[in-house]
Write a structure and sequence with these properties.
The protein is of the alpha+beta class and 398 residues long. Helices cover 31% and strands 28% of the residues. It contains ten helices and 17 strands. The chain has a seven-stranded antiparallel sheet with strand order 3-4-5-9-8-7-6. The chain has a five-stranded antiparallel sheet with strand order 15-16-14-13-17. A three-stranded antiparallel sheet has the order 1-2-10. A hairpin with a 5-residue loop joins β15 and β16. The two termini are 29 Å apart.
Length: 398
């Protein structure tokens, strides 16, 4: 099987079936390991015979995604890192006008550029270059639109590139563009009060700004799918992209919460559900906040929730998802357009209302429901919201 056959097979299978741990519209390269959780609808338009170059186009939005894998051994310039040399080579092949900046993305030396070029017409776009898991090869992504439509497509373009993960194991770190725009600076202390225990931890001082950028970015993309046949998948991706950005931002907070509460939870007959209940009770007492402007997302970014800002049901539910999944406990976010509500659900066994999700083998896994706005225990849900068919599960990786 050629590289093209492999990547096309993976892309089309995932295009058709939403399946854990990967999802519809995920482009995965089986040789170099990277993934792109792109907005719904991209289609393969062209490819090279060696399987190292691909063009994806969107039928509804005038955006093109070009993906090229380079062997960097013959492209690296003296006193210049591989990513910059490779990106210069790629953009020069287009006779593009560009400026390149370099930065560190979680231990990888990467490059980024805003560029313009002429083909059949004038185009503008964003591009990045990063090492792959094979140190001899670099990945270049170029995402662009006709110049006269670029302003209206730019958020879609940035969302596409920012969805890149270098491997399945690194899927839950902030994306490459947001990491460039908001590099970590200094620690910001966070003090929490959970189950009468004080917890001291920290986030970084630009985590809220960076996370809010992602929420706003992804909400703008989600809004394009309000009347699209893939509206449900767009909502799922919206939550996945926020989760991807938020997970590692609060890993230290998560570890400090568990370290403080674990001794008390271990006194209970079922320590896991006792710990989960401490978290649920905690978020149920958060101040409630929803966006006043319908053009804004209701979602309060997770670092802001941790810092004490008001929140809605979906941000509270995602927070608990992250806190439990960081311990290896399978957890799902449910949302319901009909009920205008969101819930959290966990695989922890305990009495109460459960919803079920089928695996690829047909096995049904039960998830215990958690209501984050009413002051109730796990497994309790209002009767007028208990119809499982009205709820859509969002499965997060790892």
């Amino acid at each position: 099987m050629t590289r093209f056959q492999k990547i096309k097979s993976i892309f089309l299978i995932l295009f058709c079936f939403s399946f854990q741990p990967f999802f519809a519209e995920v482009i995965q390269d089986s040789d170099f390991g990277f993934l792109l959780d792109v907005p719904e609808g991209y289609e393969i338009a062209n490819y090279s015979n060696d399987g190292l170059s691909y063009i994806f186009e969107h039928p509804n939005i005038p955006v093109t995604l070009a993906m090229k894998i380079y062997n960097n051994e013959n492209l690296t310039k003296k006193n210049q890192d591989n990513s910059k040399s490779v990106l210069e080579h790629s953009l020069s092949n287009l006779s593009a006008k560009y400026d390149i900046d370099t930065f560190d993305w979680y231990g990888n030396k990467c490059s980024i550029s805003n560029f313009d070029f002429n083909l059949d017409k004038s185009y503008s776009g964003w591009s990045v270059c990063t090492p792959t898991n094979n140190e001899k090869y670099n990945l270049v992504l170029l995402c662009y639109a006709p110049k006269e439509k670029f302003a209206g497509c730019e958020q879609f373009i940035i969302s596409t590139i920012n969805s890149l993960s270098l491997s399945a194991e690194k899927i839950n770190i902030p994306g490459i563009i947001v990491s460039y725009a908001f590099p970590p600076t200094k620690k910001q202390p966070v003090k929490l009060q959970i189950a009468n225990k004080q917890i001291n931890s920290f986030i970084y001082d630009n985590d809220i700004e960076a996370a809010q950028f992602v929420v706003d970015l992804e909400y703008s993309v989600l809004s394009l799918y309000s009347k699209h046949e893939k509206w449900k998948e767009a909502w799922e991706r919206y939550y996945r992209m926020i989760y991807k950005d938020s997970y590692s931002r609060i890993l230290q907070v998560s570890a400090d919460i568990y370290k403080t509460l674990e001794p008390e939870a271990n006194k209970a007959q079922n320590p896991l559900i006792d710990y989960a209940q401490m978290l649920l009770t905690w978020v149920q007492n958060f101040p409630y906040n929803r966006a006043k402007d319908v053009k804004e997302s209701d979602f309060t970014c997770i670092p802001a929730v941790i810092s004490g800002q008001g929140s809605d049901c979906d941000s509270r539910s995602m927070l608990i998802c992250i806190l439990l999944k960081s311990l290896g406990i399978e957890t799902v976010l449910y949302f319901s357009p009909e009920y205008s509500h969101a819930l959290v659900a966990t695989e922890i066994e305990a009495p109460g209302q459960t919803f079920s999700i089928k695996t690829s083998s047909g096995e049904a896994i039960k998830f215990l429901i958690g209501e984050t706005t009413a002051k109730v225990t796990w497994g309790m849900i209002a009767k007028d919201m208990a119809d499982e068919s009205k709820w859509i599960p969002v499965i997060f990786p790892f």
